[in-house]
Amino acid sequence: MKSLIDITDFSVKEIDELLNTALDIIAHPKKYSKKCKGKILATLFYEPSTRTRLSFESAMHELGGSVIGFSSADSSSASKGESFADTAKVISNYAHVIAMRTPIEGAPLVASLNASIPVINAGDGGHLHPTQTLADLLTIKREKGRLNNLTVGFCGDLKYGRTVHSLISAFSRYENINIVLISPKELKLPSYVKHDVLEKNNMPYEETTDLENSLPKLDVLYMTRVQQERFADKDEYEKLKNSYILTKEKFEKAKKDTIILHPLPRVNEISVKLDEDERACYFKQVANGKYVRMALILKLLTLAKDKTKCTLNKEGLIYNQHKCTNPKCITKTEQELDNVCKPSKTDGDVLRCVYCDKKVNK
Ligand code: NCD
User: Fold this and answer.
1) Distance (Å, rounded) from C-alpha 333 to C-alpha 84?
2) Beta-carbon neighbour count of residue 151 at 10 Å?
3) For the segment 135-144, what is each residue's pLDDT rounded down to a tens digit?
4) Does the residue 113 lie in any domain?
5) Considering the domain boundaries, does residue 188 fall inside one?
6) Structural domain that includes position 92
7) What's the pTM value of the predicted model, to 2 decimals?
8) Is residue 244 within 8 Å of 266, Cβ to Cβ?
9) How many whole angstroms separate alpha carbon 100 and alpha carbon 225?
């Protein structure tokens, strides 16, 4: 059995297969309309969502399956204090696959270790969002014709933007990718991505605050919203919320074939006037998200025929010697969960929490 918690849970070959299945679904939807007959998807959403939850639900319906679930923590037993481990064990009796979104970083991993059905991470706090990455990759493949040889600019909230973390991880396994990180200094990419993904894989990258002067070199511009809900200090959010606003005039500096992506929702970081520009691909991303989630559900249900439960890859892990310091980590809320850490990939002296990737104080 396989779950999708981190995009690197799938090899590049497996991702290519998923993208190809999505393309086949787009070309021959009828062929897939009964593939999940009798199967149930559970959408466990403890955090707001429009696209991710509804695209998962629409995907399962289009495959002929059905859907159960909840769309806020208040309407689940989490509000009574139920753990993610128990919830995962319970839902395993009602459904064949789980898609889960939560503000708690590492919770989908814990769910996957306790469920007897596949778990899909549909976003865990400011950490990871691998299925948005599948939508992003499919869009780039369709619009640019390739996933290699690209200069990709990420702009906005690179600290809390979980879609950014997962897409950079995915790109670390393709050839000749240059990354331009455009953010205010307060919202820079976290070290677990910078050191353990970019530097570990020798990926060329630069950090800048300047969007306009970065535009001419980009093949893909990935805009993000400042993630209001992740800020402990609301004044800090107010100060940073208008850091980047892409307008038609500014985008004139870009190449004729630079595409604009955005995981959405948009607040004000892309002018609606740009929507009519054929290089604005964020609504195409939405469409692609549904097809690639259909491909993912199919793949995970096929792999679930092997009932072996998901486990942590035990190599190099250190148990219960150091506590994770991230207040949003699952180790802070889940009952009797071992604190587990792993050495950083670039500096063996640095230890990272296995659930949320944040540094652990020694
Ligand atoms: C993103 C998310 O939830 O992380 N949205 C999405 O899933 N398409 C981006 C965001 O909320 O800004």
Assistant:
1) 9
2) 18
3) 999 999 999 9
4) yes
5) yes
6) 7-129+287-303
7) 0.98
8) no
9) 22
